[in-house]
Every structure is written in C-alpha cells, then in structure tokens.
Design goal:
This protein folds into two domains: 5-46 and 295-400, Aspartate Aminotransferase, domain 1 (Alpha-Beta Complex); 49-289, Type I PLP-dependent aspartate aminotransferase-like (Major domain) (Aspartate Aminotransferase, domain 2, 3-Layer(aba) Sandwich). It has an eight-stranded mixed beta sheet with strand order 2-9-8-7-6-3-4-5, sandwiched between helices. The protein has a four-stranded antiparallel beta sheet with strand order 10-11-14-13. A two-stranded parallel sheet has the order 1-12. It has helices spanning 11-15, 20-27, 48-61, 63-66, 76-87, 104-115, 130-137, 155-167, 191-204, 227-230, 259-270, 278-289, 293-318, 344-353, 383-400, and strands spanning 34-35, 98-101, 121-126, 142-149, 152-153, 172-178, 207-211, 236-241, 253-256, 324-325, 333-337, 356-357, 359-360, 373-377. Strand 10 and strand 11 form a beta hairpin. The chain is of the alpha/beta class. The chain is globular, with a radius of gyration of 21 Å. The chain has 15 helices and 14 strands.
C-alpha cells in the first residue's frame, strides 16, 4: 500500500498552491502559442559576452573564493556597488543597511518571515504581485487590499481601512507597494501619494515595504523619488533586483533598510540558504565596477519602450471599445479590464485554442475579485508577436462581447 503523503504535510505545505502564472507557463510550451503571460526579460538584453569574459577572469584569479561559502549579508564590494548605484537616486545607506538575497522572491519571503505571524495583517494593492501575496500568505498573514487608480494606492481608502483594523484590534505589520510601474497594473505611485503613505504609516506605526524592481526601466516622464529616499525614520524596507536590469539567472537581489531589521533578516536567511551564490555576486560586482551597468540599462529601456508602444498601439487597433487598459510609463506590464460579465479565467481556454496566452487577473487580487481583468506582458515576445498576439486575443474577446 502506498503512503498517504497528505497526512504528513505541514499546515503550511497543505495550504500552499502552485503559482497560477507558473502553471500557465507550462501550458504555453507549444511554439505556436504567442505568450503574453510571463514577465521574463528579453534574452537580447543579457550581456552574454561580457559575462563570459568576467566569468573566465574570476576563475583565473579568484576560483577558490568563487566556489566557496560566503557571508550571509553578501559580498561587501557588491553591496557597496549597489549602494553607489542607488545613491544616484537619493537612496542612501551604509553596508549595514543592505543584504544580498537569492532573487527578489527570497527577499519577499524573508520580509514575510521577519514580520508576519498567523493573524497579522499586511496591506497590499488591488491588484498586487502574485508571488508576494503567496509569500505573505505562507506565514499566516491576513492580506487586506486597497484599490488603486492612475496615481497608485488610494490613500483615503488606506487610512479608512487602517482605522477600521485598529478599532477591530488587528495588528497591521506593513503596507506593501510596488511604487514604480506596478506588477501587474503598470501604475506608478505619484509623489503626493508617496508623501502621504509615509504620513499614514507614521500615524499608524506600521512599516512600508517598497518593492522596486522596475524603477530603472522608465520610458517617459520624470523619475519620482522612492518612498525609501523620502522617509527619514527608518520605517521603509526597499527591495531591488538585478533580474530586470542585468539578468535573472544570476538570482541576485537586495533588501535595503533599517540596520536592525537587516540584522534580523540576516539571521533568518541563515536558516534558509546560509548565503547567496558568491560566484554570481562576483560576476555582478565586476560587471558593475566595469561601468557597463548604466549603459546596459539605457539599451534595455529603448528595447522595452518599443515593445510597450507596440502593445498599446495593438490594443487600440484590435481590442473592442468595451475594454480599457493601463498605459504604463515603464516596466513590463499592462492590465486590461473587460466588461464585468467576462471571466478571463474561463476565457483562457479559448485563447489557447487561438494560440495566445495571458494571465487571468483574479489571482492578483487579495479580495478574490478581478475576474474580468488580465495581465499582458510585453517584455519577452517580439514586436511582431505582440501585434499578432493582441490581434488573436481581440478576436477571442469580441466573441464574448454582448451586443
């Protein structure tokens, strides 16, 4: 008789479900399917030859270090490179304010592990990054969503909800926001609201977790100061990553914040992976020290801007007038909203039959709504595939529009 594995799972393992996005990506392996689903960077942006040369140099000169364990906080030289890079935008800090993580997903997991006990509340945007929601759920967090508009999270609703939760005796630990070119919506929080969210966080004595993976991928408009740079009391934790500006395969990201919080995160990280790959850190460090990172970012911005423009033009051309969509100034994503009677989860099968894929919007909503929305990604497919993919998708949607 085979063993009943379900009897042995922890409470956490029993509750966790597969990522909706990862499950969708399994369905789009057919090369005829144009995928507007995954948020994968375009491989053309990867500096392959430079990384080859750097890697060879490391193995010629630093092979013992590259293949050894390292300290939990990360390579000091890389942390200094990141701090220098961030300082150009006013995000100041010292070595004790930053820790390297094995990708930004580990950073989100460590934030959840550091702050959330079962029943604690985390405030999130509606919609919000699915993998962040899953990380926070995994530690027993209760997620409360706040609607957004074109300027980001709506501060009047946030303040009302925090007042309500306080009166109910709920313990709110942090407000989670993707401040620039939000995933999935593509929305950027305005400067006025960044200042307001700090004021509200101070009033209610909660932390702000600012996830900022797309900050450097701005196609138009003026950069807005990060929430981290605006707040002076140490109650903002900022997450960044090399995945969108260098390459995701190195699995390198960082957490910037109050040195006491960073010290606690380091202790918790030791129970997870001891240290982030020193080989990856050495590669990224030498690449940054070469001065080529800024040049690569500028090139990436031009590539992704053309793809964004292609998608927005295609949406105007092929989507029915009953639909609306966000118009991001940067990043990777657009969210389209269809009439309320259309469930994009149910419609997904029809899209696959037309050889096009997207991500249904409902999993991004902590309030379990958003069934009539979809996330469309323009970062990976070619311009030609974006145009054709939106054309196919428009055809699917038009079949569901009520006359």
């Amino acid at each position: 008789m085979s063993i009943n594995t379900k009897e042995f799972y922890s409470i956490l393992a029993s509750k966790m479900e597969a990522s909706a996005i990862r499950e969708i990506l399994k369905l789009v392996q057919n090369p005829e399917v144009i995928s507007l689903a995954g948020g994968m960077p375009d491989p053309i942006t990867f500096p392959v030859e430079e990384i080859k040369e750097i890697s060879q140099n490391i193995f010629n000169k630093k092979s013992a270090q590259a293949l050894q364990y390292s300290n939990t906080e990360g390579l000091p030289e890389l942390r200094r490179c990141i701090l220098d890079h961030l300082a150009k935008d006013g995000n100041n800090g010292e070595l004790e304010n930053i820790i390297i993580s094995s990708g930004s997903q580990q950073g989100l997991d460590l934030v959840g592990k550091t702050f959330l006990s079962p029943g604690d509340v985390a405030i999130v945007e509606l919609p919000s990054y699915l993998a962040a929601l899953n990380a926070f759920y995994s530690y027993g967090g209760e997620l409360v969503g706040i609607p957004m508009d074109d300027e980001g999270m709506q501060m009047d609703i946030l303040e009302e909800k925090l007042t309500q939760l306080k009166n109910e005796g709920k313990k709110v630990k942090f407000i989670y926001t993707i401040s620039n070119f939000q995933n999935p919506a593509g929305v950027t929080m305005s400067l006025a609201r960044r200042k307001k969210i700090i004021e509200i966080a101070h009033k209610f004595n909660v932390f702000i977790v600012e996830d900022n993976p797309y900050e450097k991928l701005r196609f138009e408009g003026e950069p807005t100061p990060s929430i981290y740079s605006l707040e002076k009391n140490g109650s903002v934790i900022s997450l960044g990553t090399f995945s969108k500006i260098l390459c995701p395969g190195l699995r390198l990201a960082w957490i910037l914040g109050n040195k006491e919080i960073i010290r606690k995160i380091a202790i918790l990280k030791q129970a997870t992976d001891l240290c982030t790959s020193i080989l990856s850190q050495l590669i990224a460090c030498e690449y940054c020290q070469s001065g080529k990172l800024e040049e690569n970012i500028k090139s990436n911005v031009q590539i992704y801007k053309k793809k964004r423009d292609t998608m927005l033009n295609a949406l105007e051309k092929y989507f029915p007038k009953e639909t609306v969509w966000t118009k991001p100034q940067g990043g990777f994503f657009v969210v389209a909203t269809l009439p309320e009677y259309i469930d994009t989860g149910e419609m997904f099968k029809e899209a696959i039959e037309e050889n096009v894929a997207y991500v249904p919007g409902a999993p991004f909503f902590a309030d379990r709504k958003g069934q009539n929305t979809m996330r469309l990604s323009f970062c990976f497919p070619s311009a030609e595939d974006i145009d054709e993919g939106i054309k196919r998708l428009g055809k699917v949607i038009k079949k569901r529009i009520k006359n």
